[in-house]
Write a structure and sequence with these properties.
By secondary structure, the chain is of the alpha+beta class. The protein has 20 helices and 28 strands. Helix content is 28%, strand content 24%. It has a 7-stranded mixed beta sheet, sandwiched between helices. The chain has a 5-stranded mixed beta sheet with strand order 7-15-14-13-8, sandwiched between helices. Helix 18 links the parallel strand 27 and strand 28 (714-718). It is globular, with a radius of gyration of 28 Å.
Length: 781
Amino acid sequence: MSPLIGKPLRRKEDLRLLTGGGRYSDDVNLPGQAYACVLRSPHAHARIRSIDTVAAQTMPGVLAVLTGADVKADGLRDIPHTPIPAKPPADILLVNSDGSEHGYAPQDLLPTDRVRYVGQQVAMVVAETVAQAKDAAEHIAVEYEPLDPVIAGAAAVQTGAVRLYDRVANTCVDADVGNRAATQAAFDRASRFARIQTTVQRVTGVPLDLRAAVGVYDPATRKYTLHAGSGGVVRQKAELAGILGVPVTDVRVECGDVGGNYGTRNAFYPEFGLVVWAAKRLRRPVKWTCERTEAFASDYQGRDQAITLELALDANGKFLAARGEVISNVGAHSVMYVPLLKCSELLTSVYRVPAAHIRARAVLTNTVPTSPYRSAGRPEAMFAIERLIDIAARQFGYDRIDLRRRNLIPPSAQPYPNPLGMTYDSGDYADVMDRALVLSDWKGFPARKRESRRARKLRGIGLANYIESTSGAPREYAKVDVLPEGRVDVTVGTLSSGQGHETSFAQCVGEWLGVDLDSIRLIQGDTDIVPAGGGSHSARSMRMGGVVMGKASEAVIQKAAKIAGHVMEADAGDIAFLEGRFTVKGTDRSIGLFEVARAARERSDLPEELRGPLAADCDDMIRLPAFPFGCAVCEVEIDPQTGRTEIVQYTSVDDVGRAINPLILHGQAHGAIAQGVGQAMWEHSRYDPVTGQLLAGSMMDYAMPRAPMLPAFVTDLSETLAPGNPLGVRGGGEGGTTPALAVVVNAVVDALSEYGVTHLEMPLTAERVWQAIRDGKARTA
């Protein structure tokens, strides 16, 4: 049997998904279910003076109209978010510099005092049909007292800024990262300084299938069930139990297929708790399905960090120190501060920077809460440092590539402690950069630029290196069960949302057990079956799932070898296992794995401990992180008359550690690049800075990348095995996004450099590029 790990196999789940065999959240329908509609706030900030539900309650088909007062009366608790999860060893501690505790802004299911962003849930109607629920929601009379909102993170930290909470300050985290004194000393002796002040704008995930949830309550067993797509059911189970105030054993969370996540589905949503609560009150299932415009106003959003960064250099272009601040806009509630943490600890990237100091702040505003979004915090960090290096190169007359090369961390310095508290594991960053330069034909760019000039177009090229820190929830679970009928069931605590787990996980188990890929069935997404696990985030699925699947598979083989020894009347030490068969060494006697599984279930002459299912599980804590890295090159062409920018070539080389399935990894890279390019050029969850109204609330005003807007990507994989896990996996789902913001802007600024343009803020719309050209011409004139 040829090895399965490393083969570029097509995804086995695609036939089912592409032919309508998937089961997404909205596909769940239960007998007798009622339908919910959520009434949402039209104000960014307002006191709730009163809510009159009388008219709505008398509408046809209405079963219940629920408000925050009902939530309080029934004793439901706030959503138990954990803004800074239990600290893996790799991550720094965000400790407030004055020694105080982090601020925490709670998120209740339905508010009773104020609304704090446009789209916040205010009340919920449950009726016999969706139409009846919508009609009734329009008859709920809410008296609001509008208050001034604060929208930008930088504005929220100003003295006298509007406060969202009476007892919680707008600034929830104010931490020092790195060494302030050493950094100041390095700046004092530096001869050159470069600076950037920028904002990485807010975006949203726009997954293929919208959020939906069905809540069920069984009065006979007193058990609550939630059917909803998410990033991990085990975490959602614990959070739902906390909201309801019941033991976790009384709660089940079940999830089928998930059509895209990107991190926006990992945290618990109010609607999930509402439908389960309503199901108990009504003694029937309650279903809620989000609409697209509703999702723009209520899905957790991402990015939104204001970054100031300074770089000190000596006369030879050697980096001496970096300093600055990061202000992370977390929105109206404390869902997650991880993007701030990740950005702050990686701002020096793959470069040797002896000293650094960052002031890291998480602040509240009257916007949708933010949460980790694909490669949380890392694209923001790479954007700041890679733009700053380009600025320094232009400012001091260095070649962009040479300046990077002379400051890259060499392999001999690994493991490398960066000045912000991280220790990288391994990697040859210069080699990956060189491969990207060759693949993109960087040397041939001047000729292509001349060709564009003949066509009266501007042409630019940019490069960006990157590093990731993949950690995530440290606990993971797997069970491997070999069935006599020729099937292997693999139960895991991760949860696929499009990454191809059914294929890549099967490749690992198939190779370890020596069985055919199609004989392996992946089981996930049901807390009645999966007792533990961290779900999917921070590129942890294969990195951690591979460890526990490997240990469980090894335990199965060890048990099966003992059974095979009894069956073939040989000592266990004389049994060899290869490609799915157990053989008595030095003989031709052998027995297959599935035959052993049958013997374990049927033979009564086996020792008691060997009888029954041929299965083993593993529940393990995996605390070592991994550090994917890579390099991207982007080439653009711009029409100076209109500002229209076209990406004509995009190249990336990503070191993912061991590539379990290169085909899937290339696909993940393509999707991640599109996501990053989309933010760089088009996407922006924009709010009116005065009223706080969401200005990007539909597909008509939130621009998404489409196939004709992007070139065919050139992607390549590097495989430097990560030392922190047996498979050597680093992670490959986020690397394409991480350098994309920086590399696109670097390329566009390079194209516009003849007009004196040194920096542009994202997104790089045609209007913004055209205005930069116009301003540059005016300066020249």
